[in-house]
Every structure is written in C-alpha cells, then in structure tokens.
Design a protein that fits this description.
Largest sheet of chain B: 8 strands, mixed
Helix content of chain B: 25-40%
Shape of chain B: globular
Number of helices of chain A: 10
CATH architecture of chain A: Orthogonal Bundle
Number of domains of chain A: 1
CATH class of chain A: Mainly Alpha
Radius of gyration of chain B: 26 Å
CATH topology of the domain at 344-563 in chain B: Rossmann fold
Number of strands of chain A: 0
Largest interface: A-B, 30 and 60 residues
Distance between the termini of chain A: 30 Å
CATH architecture of the domain at 344-563 in chain B: 3-Layer(aba) Sandwich
Radius of gyration of chain A: 24 Å
Oligomer: heterodimer
Number of strands of chain B: 26
Shape of chain A: globular
Helix content of chain A: over 70%
Structural class of chain A: mainly alpha
Number of helices of chain B: 24
Strand content of chain A: under 5%
Order of helices and strands of chain A: HHHHHHHHHH
CATH superfamily of the domain at 344-563 in chain B: P-loop containing nucleotide triphosphate hydrolases
Chain lengths: 297, 675
C-alpha cells in the first residue's frame, strides 16, 4: 500500500511558478487575432498615455494662429481646430487624461466593490440583504442619469467625474464578486478552513479571493472601457472635465459647432474614443476566454 | 447455437480533442446473445461508457469508430447511415442514461413523454397506464400527470426505463442507471429490470462500476481496463476464479458484507489507470500488476480463450488458472498496537438539527444520542435524507443544532463554531466527501497542510515545512508533493492530503463524511486502510459516515443505522449482519447487492417513498414503509429501545423474541465461504 500513491502518472513535479503561469496565460490571450489586436492597441494607448508629452509636437493649448482651421497635413497630422490648436497633440495628450480618470476610477471601484462583495457574500444575513437592496436601487437608474444627478450636486470638475465613476461602478463590481463568493464559500476547503479556526480575513483574502480574481480581471477590464465611455460622455455633455482640457469628449463637443469647417477636430478624438473602447472590450473578451481555458485545464 | 444478437469485432474507438486523437477503445471483441444480461465493469476511465455508446453507435460528436465492426443481427451498425440508425434506436436498441434528472424534459408531464415514445414506436398511445403498471407504480394515473421534478430519482429512472422498453427493443443499453440512487431504490429498479427482461426477453448491456450489481443481475461480465477487454466470462465463473490480475484486484477492493478491517484486509490496486490517449505497447495493466514479469513490459498479450466460454488478455493466465501463482497481493498486516483503555471522547444527547425552508422547517436530525470512544470507530449508515451528514456537521460546528448537547472529553461544546476555542477546534477535525473540493485549488499542498499546524498547534511557519513532510509521509505520499497544486493530484491523492490535513492538529475525534464514496473502488480500499492505520497509530476516535453498509461494516467498530433523522439501531459491527434486526436494517441489508453471486439474500423491498422531513411521521418514523408494521401502536407511540444480550439496541415496538422468531439472517453463504 505504501507505494499506492508514489506510482503516479502526473509528470510535472511542482506547481508552475508565477512567471511561467503568466506567460502561458499571455500566450493563450494572443492566440486569437481579435484578442491579440485588442491587447496590442490597448497597450499602445497605454504607452501613449505614459510618454505622450514626449511625442506631442505642440502643447495642448498652444495656439498656432496662422495654421488655424488647416486640414490634416504633414505639419499637423490630424489638422488644426478653429482656435489654432494642433488636434494630433491634443489627442495624444488627452490619452493620459482619460487613462488616469477612467483608470483610477475603475481601480477604486474595483477595490471598494471587491471588499464589499467579499464581505457581503461571505457574511450573508441582514448585512448582505441591506447592501444588495441598496445596490439594486442604485443600479435601477441608468449610469448616465445617475452621473448627471451627482454632478448636478457636486458641480462639474475632474474630481467629481472620478467620484461618479467610482459610485456608479461599485455596485456592479460588488455583485460580480459576491456571486463568485456565494458559489465558493460552500466548498469543502472553505469549511475545512473554518473548522481549522482560520480568521475571516484570511478566509476572505487568501482562500476565497484567488477564486474571484479571474472574474474580477474580466470585470475590471470591462468597467475600464465603460469608464472611458462615461467620462467622455460627461465631457461631451459639458458637465465633466472643463475646458481647456484636451479631454476627448470635450474636444468632440467643442468641435461640434464648427463641424462643417473643421470636421477633423471632431473625427479624430471621436475615433480615439471608439478605438480605445473597442480594443479594451476585445481585451476583456480575451481575458474571459483565457480564464475559461485555464479553468478547464 | 443461434448467432449472437450483437457482436463487436476488433472495435476501436477514438476521440478527437483539439488536434489530438485519443484512443478510447482498442480491439474489443464482445458478443451478446438474445435475452442475455451482460455486465460491463471497470474503473472510471476504463472506456466502459464509450463501449456502451459505441455499441449503439451513439458516440458524442468528437468520437468516431476507427476500425472494427458492430454486427447487430446481419447488419454492421458501423456502416449504416444516420437515417438507418435512427430507425433502429428505440425500436431495436433502447438506452437508459445515468442521470434521470437531465434525461427527462422538465417542462412536459411524464405521461406525455411516455405517450410520445409510444407514438414514435407506432404503438397504441393509450398503453401509458399499462406500461406504468408494469413498472409497478402504485398510482399510475397520478404519476402520469406529474412533471419530472415532482418525482423522486427512482421514479424518474422508472419513467426512462419504461420509455426505453416501450419500443420493445431487442437490446437495452444501460449506463450506470442506479448509481445516483439509494440502495433500497436501486434494489427495486434491479427487480424491475429482471422482471422486464423475463417478460420481454430483451438482452441488456449493463454498464456499472458496482460489482454487487454485476454479481446479482448479470449472466456474463466483461471487464474493461484502459480501453481494452481484460477478461470476459460467465458471471459465476468470473467471481469463482478470475483469471486476470485486474479482475482479482477489483474483487479484492470491495468489502464484502461482513468483511472486517482487523480480520481480513481489503487489498486494492496500486497506482492509477493510464490517462486517455497514452499509447502503451505492452500489457496496459503491467504498471499496476503484482504479477508483472519481463514479458508483460515488452509484449502486448493476446486475447486467449482458456475455455470455450471465456476470454482473457494476460500473459500469465495459464499459471493463474493452474493455481501456481495468485494475483492476490500480500497485504501488510495492520500494525497491532496494544489496546489502550478506551475512554469516552464524544457524547451527543438529544441532538436536533433543523433547517428553515420556504415550505416549513426541515427536521434533518430529530433527537440523536451517540457516543464515540478513543481508538474506535462509530459508523453511521443511512440513505440520503437520513440526517447522517447533518449529524456530523452539527458536531463539528458547521451547522448549529436547534436542541441537544455535545460533549467532547466531558466538556460541553459551544454550538457555534466561532465560540469554540483553538483547543476544541484542534481536537475535532473532518474529512469531507468530495476530494475535488477538499483542497483549495490555488494553494499548494504544502500551504494547505501547514495552516492547521500554524493555527492550531502553534508551530512557527519556518518549522512547519519539516512537519508537512512528516504529514505527507504518514499518508504515504512523497515529500515533494508539498510543492504541487491540487490540480496535479489524482482524486485518491487529494483525499490523502485532506486526511493528512485533518490529522495535522492531532484530533481526538475525526469526522469522516463519505470520504470514499467519490473514489474508484481500487482507490477506496487504500483510503479505508489508511484511515484504519492512522486511527490505530493515533488512538483517534472516529465518526465514519457512509451510505454503503459494507464499507461501514468493514471499518467501524460500532454501527448506528439512521432513518429520517433518527437512529433505528445500534450494534457492534460484528453482529450487524446477524438477526435480529430493526426492520429497516433488515430491508437495507437485503437491498445491498452483494459482490458475490454465491450469496443467497432474503428479498425484502420497501414500498412507497421516503416521507418528507418537513412533515415527518409520528410514532415510529419508519411505520409508513415498514414491512413488519404492527398496527396503530407504530403510528401513535414512539418505540422503546430494546437491547439484546450481544449489545444491539433496536428502536422498535416488536419484542425481540418476535423479531428473532420471524427473521433469519438476510445473507446466507452458499458452499465454501470465500475470503
């Protein structure tokens, strides 16, 4: 009997390390063309967000009055708007804006939402009931309407937009996390941890959280794409980031009046929004696929 | 002799998975005569379901027949078009799947589903009632109007069998039809199949991993291993003298009713079945075979016929047949430890567990008293809904009992888990049923094992590593398993780690809730022996819960039989199989198919369905189904505990003398009793 277990056909000798695991996941992510494209474009935007100021030939609000209303040319790739600002530079510089706004907003929403979801799902009872009903009422309002309502009271500013993104996305993230917690918490290994006297904090963050991470990564990517969309929409409506920021939604708004004279000032920032939202969505889709494949192994 | 009904010749089946082609069956020869009951056994992964599906050409989309023929009558099914196959399915070949819950349409009344089958087979649609009566359904008109979810698993399976038989097929293929059912229900279904077969003269291909079912039901058995036919013989001959070491191993893995850990150890089979698609150019069983010699590793054995009636694929069958060598492995004797004075570890009094449900309160445990002593095992046996798991969960603190007292080592335990201190927690540990869920998939084995050491024993994290190695060694796993993730372990290995984790805090009481029911029989034996060894070593008290009375009888010292939240009988394990019994125990014992075709078994079947635990019967809980029902007294009064001289306690109104007079031993061994 002693040899019963040693005669084993499993060939791997130890658990793969994190690096190895990351590369195998990345390889799966890049296997499908659409996922690979989404990932690459998202990364490209990220790079622009970081080194944008180095690439931009002009400042965001630098007015080259002589070239005002010029169409796309070798000197001004995306043309010049009515005030004589270089659209290419503004789009490049706006990338950082949108990334910080949507990125920090999503990050905060994910952090708070995950904690609430973990707690709510694991504790259950009245706490769960209360929180979920509250979230239901928040989710009953369309995101944009809720955002307008909040901005009406807070006043339009960058901080307000950030706050809105966080508030709007906390319930969504919390629900995704909670649903995974509910399915995991009845498993024997959680019960085993409980009868071994593990603390709730350890059970939540060490035993349950790893099971939540795949769903959370997908959700975070999706939230990020919607946050970009939301921030731009608010900018476009004039209640978000205020001029003269090179925020894409705001740029579209500003170019709207002169669309017959300088259509490029509208098209390029609008295209940037679409491209980034679509590619982040594709990335989220790819992540979902990756974790599914990983789960089936 | 007439030509066989179904004849598989050199059948090979493969699955396409991604870009790989995995061989599931290789060169299988099999023939089934009209009216014959043919058993197909093997561990999971042996290819038995694939063979059953291939025999009726009903493989999943990625499966295909690579070579060989499937002669059904004078036609080769492998060459027929889908239309021609469709004309045969149902009318000539019927199929009963494993899981009745997913095989019935949940939105159509069962009567209408049977009617649809009848219409398809151009039979009179008004035959529905007659068919249900043949299925021995007490109230066919009512059942026909019900939806699948309103029926019990046993009733659902009856519906599927009636549909499969309504086309009067020549062959009925059954894929583990009773695996999901309780034994008393299983016994009724097997009776039904036997009856139907005699009446309709249908041949059956019965796929199962349960050797008991094979022994009691079938005429012939084929043993599959890793996609190859290991042995094929008439059932009685196979059980009398298995010629393939694998068959012998399987037979030695399942506890016979009455087999005991200290007298006659289970043997099991070392190692595990090769993964699908591994190509082996030798005997597939050689890595696990106790008799493997040089040639077994070099050359694939041919399928030989030792007698005209049986075939075997083994190099050494002539020696085995002559009795020169025996495939039974030598078994290490259990380490005999001087029995220490047994002190009481657990005392449970009047325990009640209730769950609040939308339709009322489900009374899972209704007043249970049990004791457990050090170094001994209390086995709790019962069917689903008996409350046996709730009992264990209340003791460990995972559910809060509504009434009752739990004492551990003479100290009353708080009911709530969070109120119990580290000392209490360390003295009470549990092994769970499903090995797939027992370990956190994101933690390595070493991390999982070091946690109880750190939290409950106060070991410093730096020192835990060395002790993890000791724990692994205690459950016969190599120390380098500490770096593995659960996904790299087999089911049996996971359960070993779970056992090691439970023993890490050196508990006084170990609760084991069906720890082997999810494992293959060959692995089951090793886990049971491991539990027995560790118990002797640590003098741990154990509460062992299982639905299989043979398994409980093998491992336990004391046995409690539960029904509907109450204990019906307690007895020393040695005498559980001897009369007198509680009428429920009697029915249970007569329902378990013994893995031995030479055992004579009393036939007692329970009528009706298990009463709802939301509204349990008054008086004796068993009175609604009791074959020895006395009368009003059983309905109105709670039965007394009656004690026999040899230590049995029976919860019944019938006086012991009457039980003794009316009952004989349910199991009687015919001829020489085998080891």
């Amino acid at each position: 009997m002693a040899s019963a277990a040693t005669a084993d056909v499993t060939k791997q000798s130890a658990a793969p390390g994190w690096g190895q695991r990351f590369f195998s996941l990345a390889r799966t992510l890049l296997r499908r063309p659409s996922h690979a494209l989404g990932t690459l474009i998202s990364l490209l935007f990220l790079v622009i967000a970081i080194i944008g100021p180095l690439l931009a030939p002009y400042g965001a609000n630098e007015q080259i009055v002589a070239d005002a209303r010029d169409g796309p040319s070798a000197a001004h790739w995306f043309g010049v708007d009515t005030l004589g600002r270089d659209v290419y530079s503004r789009v490049l510089l706006g990338t950082r804006d949108i990334f910080t706004l949507a990125g920090i907003g999503t990050l905060l929403a994910v952090l708070i939402g995950t904690s609430l979801g973990l707690l709510s799902g694991y504790r259950g009872g009245w706490f769960d009931e209360l929180l979920m009903r509250f979230f239901d009422s928040v989710l009953a309002l369309p995101a944009l309407l809720l955002a307008l309502l909040l901005l009406g009271t807070l006043g339009p500013s960058r901080q307000s937009v950030l706050f809105v993104i966080v508030i709007v996305y906390i319930p969504i993230v919390a629900r995704v996390v909670r649903s995974v917690v509910l399915s995991v918490k009845t498993r024997s290994y959680i019960e085993a941890a409980r009868v071994q006297g593990e603390s709730s904090a350890r059970i939540l963050f060490r035993e349950i959280l790893p099971a939540v991470l795949p769903a959370l990564a997908v959700e975070a990517a999706l939230r990020f794409s919607y946050a970009i969309f939301l921030a731009s929409s608010l900018g476009f409506l004039g209640v978000g980031v205020q001029p003269p920021s090179p925020e894409w939604g705001l740029m579209v708004n500003e170019a709207r009046d002169a669309v017959s004279q300088t259509p490029w000032a509208l098209y390029f920032p609008a295209a940037a929004i679409s491209l980034l939202v679509i590619s982040v969505n594709l990335l989220a889709d790819g992540l979902k696929h990756v974790f599914q494949m990983d789960g089936e192994r | 002799m007439a030509s066989p009904l179904l004849q598989l010749q050199q059948l090979a089946v493969s699955y396409k998975v991604g870009r790989r082609t995995l061989d599931a069956l290789r060169d299988v020869d099999l023939s089934i005569d009209a009216g014959q009951t043919y058993g197909l056994v093997g561990e999971s992964g042996s290819g038995k379901s694939t063979l059953a599906l291939a025999a009726m050409r009903y493989l999943p989309a990625n499966g295909f027949i690579r070579s060989g023929s499937i002669m059904f009558g004078d036609k080769d099914l492998a060459k027929l078009s889908p239309e021609e196959m469709r004309a045969r399915w149902g009318r000539q070949i019927g199929f009963v799947p494993q899981n009745p819950a997913t095989a019935l349409n949940p939105s159509v009344r069962v009567g209408d589903q049977i009617r649809e089958a009848l219409r398809l087979y151009s039979r009179d649609e008004s035959d529905v009632m007659e068919i249900l009566k043949q299925m021995r359904i007490a109230d066919p008109a009512r059942v026909a109007r019900q939806y699948p979810h309103q029926l019990s698993g046993g009733m659902q399976q009856r519906m599927l069998i009636s549909m499969a038989l309504s086309g009067n097929p020549h062959l009925l293929v059954l894929d583990e039809p009773t695996t999901a059912l309780d034994v008393t229900t299983e016994a009724a279904i097997l009776d039904l199949l036997r009856g139907a077969q005699q009446m309709l003269n249908t041949a059956m291909l019965y796929v199962t991993h349960n050797l008991g079912v094979v022994a009691t039901l079938t005429d012939r058995v084929a043993v599959l291993y890793a996609g190859e036919l290991a042995e094929d013989a008439p059932t009685k001959e196979l059980f009398r003298q298995p010629l393939h070491p694998y068959t012998r191993g399987l037979l030695d893995s399942v506890p016979r009713l009455g087999q005991r850990k200290d007298v006659n150890r289970l043997r099991g089979i070392v190692g595990q079945i090769p993964a699908l698609g591994e190509t082996i150019d030798a005997c597939v069983f050689a890595p696990r075979c106790p008799l493997a010699i040089e040639i077994c590793w070099q050359k694939r054995p041919t399928l030989d016929a030792p007698t005209p009636d049986r075939t075997v694929r083994c190099h050494r069958w002539p020696e085995i047949m002559a009795g020169d060598i025996s495939p039974s492995r030598a078994v290490e004797k259990s380490s005999q430890v001087t029995k220490q004075a047994a002190n009481q570890v657990l005392q449970v009094d009047g325990l009640q567990v209730a769950y609040k449900m939308p339709g009322g309160t489900l009374q899972a445990v209704r007043g249970v008293d049990v004791q457990a002593t050090s170094g001994r095992t209390l086995g709790v046996v019962g069917e689903s809904g008996s409350g046996k798991s709730s009992l264990a969960r209340a003791v460990i603190g995972l559910v809060e009992p509504s009434e009752g007292k739990i004492d551990l080592l003479g100290i009353q335990l708080p009911k709530r888990l969070t109120r119990r201190n580290r000392v209490v927690l360390s003295h009470l540990q549990m092994v769970f049923q499903n090995p797939e869920e027992a370990l956190n998939p994101h933690l390595t084995v070493g991390e999982s094992l070091s946690r109880p050491l750190i939290t409950l024993r106060g070991v410093k994290p730096a020192d835990a590593k060395a002790q993890v190695g000791e724990l692994l060694a205690a459950v016969r796993l190599p120390a380098d398993y500490a770096d593995r993730l659960p996904s790299q372990l087999s089911g049996g290995e996971k359960q070993r780690v779970a056992i090691a984790r439970a023993f890490a805090s050196q508990p006084e009481l170990l609760l084991a809730d069906e720890p082997v029911s999810a494992l293959d029989v060959s692995v089951q034996a090793a886990i049971l022996n491991l539990l027995a060894d560790l118990q002797i070593e640590h003098q741990t008290s154990m509460l062992f819960i299982a639905h299989d009375i043979a398994v409980v009888g093998y491992l336990a010292d004391e046995i409690a039989v539960m029904y509907l939240g109450q204990i019906m009988q307690t007895s020393p394990a040695e005498t559980i199989f001897d009369a007198p019994y509680h009428p429920y125990t009697e029915a249970l014992l007569s329902s378990v198919p013994p893995p031995d075709p030479f055992v004579k078994q009393e036939r007692i079947r329970l009528e009706g369905e298990l009463p709802s635990a939301v509204n349990p019967p008054n008086g004796c809980p068993f009175h609604t189904r009791c074959p020895r029902f006395l009368g009003d007294i059983c309905v109105e009064q709670k039965p007394p505990w009656r004690e026999t001289e040899d230590g049995k306690r029976i919860f019944c109104h019938i006086p012991l003398e009457d039980l003794l007079r009316d009952q004989t031993d349910v199991l009687q061994f015919e001829g020489a009793k085998k080891s």
